[in-house]
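Hello Y.,

Per our agreement to keep a running log of every chain we model this quarter, I'm adding this entry. I've kept the format consistent with earlier entries: sequence first, then predicted structure.
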Amino acid sequence: MQRFTVLIMTDQTSPVRRFQVQKVTLQRAVAAAAVVALLLVGGLVDYSSKWMENSELDSLRLETLSQREQIFGLETSISDTEERLERLRQLERKLRVITNLPGGEELSGGMGGGIDEGDLPFSEPLVDPGVMKGLENQEATPTDQINTSSTDSVQPSEGDRLASLSAARMARLRLDSERLELEAAVREVALASLVDHLQGQSKRLASTPSVWPVKGWLTSRFGPRVSPFTGKRQFHSGIDVAAENGAAVVAPARGKVVYAGHKRLLGNTLIIDHGFGIRTSYGHNAKLHVKKGDHVERGDLVASVGSTGRSTGPHLHYSLTVDDRAVNPLDYILD
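Predicted structure for the entry above:
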């Protein structure tokens, strides 16, 4: 069997060390070294690939976080704009009611005076509900819970999924933005027409009860309610505002006192005729500061809050009629 002799000399004075190695053993050692080298090279290549993938994913995460912040900012801005438009809708509705222009009743949401989303313009969904439900389910996946320190939990397709999700949300935001722009244009035209109509209407506006008659807490609204005395449903022809006993009750507009006296259920009651078919009534007062025939201006003291008549505590029962028809006083209050 062929052998190789290996000589090892450390220096001139040290003895020579001899080793004999069989040829097949040397070949096996060389082969093993080659295999180890290949494994090391493969490991380095795989590590480099993983490192590059992690770098790309980290960059994608940062980009996604930035997009999420931008989307959140747009959503917040759109939400604020919608709230401002809602206030404009209410203002337009009240102005139409006050000035007796068409459109006030349609926007009032019924006899109770509330505004329902279904009664508002552009309330129909702009995207198919099934599509939006799919987008919402997709958005429900907590993308911000991705572990940035782990590569095993993130698949290579994660970037495509996040990009698709961001694109869907941006598309929805664009639709919302277009809807708001369209509605803002409609509101601008509507309010401009109201301003034109209000010019020369100063006398009617001065006689329209458009402020709160008392400072307090709204405890009962206009419309059907359960009676605190009988426990049965009945129609409430005004609103109840709880306040401290003796709190000032003021005239909400210019008018003439046509009744100042005592009624069995309302106690000390005051009725003011504002002209244009509008009358306001104030019940349960502790004291009346005006008498029949007096003329009052908006803000004048007319009564003090009490609990006379059939009452559960100090409050003002405030009602408003137009051409002898009870309407919601909140539709006329602007402040």
